Amino acid sequence: MASNTSFTIANALGLGYGINSNDIVTNLVAAAQSPEQNIIRARQNINKAQISALAKYKSAQSYMERQIMMWNSSKSR
After folding, report:
1. Angle 59-60-65 (CA atoms, 0-180°, nearest 5)?
2. Rounded Cα gap, residues 27 and 16, in angstroms
3. What CA–CA distance (Å, rounded) separates 77 from 20?
């Protein structure tokens, strides 16, 4: 009940008019989440880079295996 009373008193005094409380709350929440989101994005970028590196390695490995197989087959003829 005190919350409603405070709100009523604030309204009666004309306090809070012209203040966009939704924007304030949204900005405060975004500011609080930003560091965590930055950490998550950094980890995602690291994971993507590692996956890309593994894919390049696998591609190079497959290429080398094919070259060795071709070399061995030409050698045995």
Report:
1. 100
2. 17
3. 83
Query: Dihedral sign, CA of 10, 11, 15, 18?
Result: positive
pLDDT tens by residue, 11-58: 666 665 667 778 888 888 888 888 888 899 999 999 999 999 999 999
pTM (two decimals): 0.52
Q: How far apart are CA 67 and CA 62, in angstroms?
A: 9
CA distances from 42 to 6, 30, 50, 53, 56 (A): 43, 17, 12, 17, 21
Amino acid identity, residue 53? A
| DSSP string of 32-61, one letter each residue | HHHHHHHHHHHHHHHHHHHHHHHHHHHHHH
Say which residue the tokens 């696998």 belong to.
Answer: 58
Whether the Cβ atoms of residue 26 and residue 32 lie closer than 8 Å to each other = no
